[in-house]
Amino acid sequence: MSFELSTKYRFAIFDVAGTTVLDEGIVIESFLDALDVVEPRSTKVEQYLQVIQATMGERKIDVFLKIFGELNKAEQAHEAFVKSYLARVRRGEVLAIPGSEALFSKLRNQAVKIGLNTGFSRNILDTIIESLGWQTLVDYSVASSEVNLGRPAPDMILSLVERYQRDVGHDLDGSEIVVFGDTIADIESAKRAGIDARVAIHSGVHTVDELTEAGASVVISSVADVVVK
Questions:
Q1: Could you give the CA distance from residue 155 to residue 149 in angstroms, rounded to a whole number?
Q2: Which of 18, 38, 49, 56 has the fewest CB atoms within 10 Å distance of its CB?
Q3: Region at 225 (left for phi over 0; alpha for psi -120 to 50; beta for the rest)
């Protein structure tokens, strides 16, 4: 299945890991590194992994709070997660999903603004953008560390929309925005933000049925399946 991005759309908002950036287990590996720092040789790893899988797309500090139930451990784990993931980015392990950069270029040619939002912190997001050379492709970006509430709350999307409207001088309607993401949290966030076009990427994190039940208007295999009209 494909998604046709027509000329009515003025703003396209994308998730990062699993949507525009390949995630071949790197996020999970960084979570495991963090867990090992806080609870070395823990017997609860499988239990923790279930929480991590169920909360993919959410703010990482929030995930660690759900796992440990206390702020000190959560902050320690988050610091270790950031350190692990940044090291992987700098080693060149984080790559663009095939078709994502071509899609960005097509959208820019159609005067569609591009925004990124992520469950990562700002230092990870900036390092990814710099590593992939996306500085001239992305118009706006927001990290979960910069808003009051992470996904599935709509805060990040609303922040991007506010910045667009301030810069462009045009009040966007929900029908003029399209949001792409590969997790239930992405889709629920877009729904709460009043976005009509909620495009789910079936990356394997969730089933097609789960993404549809969360509110996806369409489910596609990859951003490479987006047709720009």
A1: 6
A2: 49
A3: alpha
- Taking the C-alpha atoms of residue 146 and residue 188, their distance in angstroms, rounded to an integer, is 19
Token pair 């003029």 is found at 176
- The SS3 of residue 123 is helix
What per-residue confidence (pLDDT) applies to 143? 98
Q: Determine the straight-line distance between the first and last CA of the chain, rounded to whole angstroms.
A: 16
What does the alpha-carbon distance between residue 7 and residue 188 come to, in Å, rounded to a whole number?
A: 25
Considering the domain architecture, whether residues 189 and 203 belong to the same structural domain is answered as yes
Q: How far lies 70's CA from each of 38, 73, 77, 151, in Å? A: 12, 6, 11, 20
Q: ∠ CA(34), CA(85), CA(79), 5° rounding?
A: 45
User: Domain check: are 104 and 200 in the same one?
Assistant: yes
Mark the ranges of the chain whose per-residue pLDDT is less than 50: none
Same domain, 82 and 149: no
Identify the domain containing residue 31 by its residue range: 26-90
Question: Tens digits of per-residue pLDDT, 30-77?
Answer: 999 999 999 998 999 999 999 999 999 999 999 999 999 999 999 999
- Give the whole-angstrom CA distance, residue 135 versus residue 9: 22
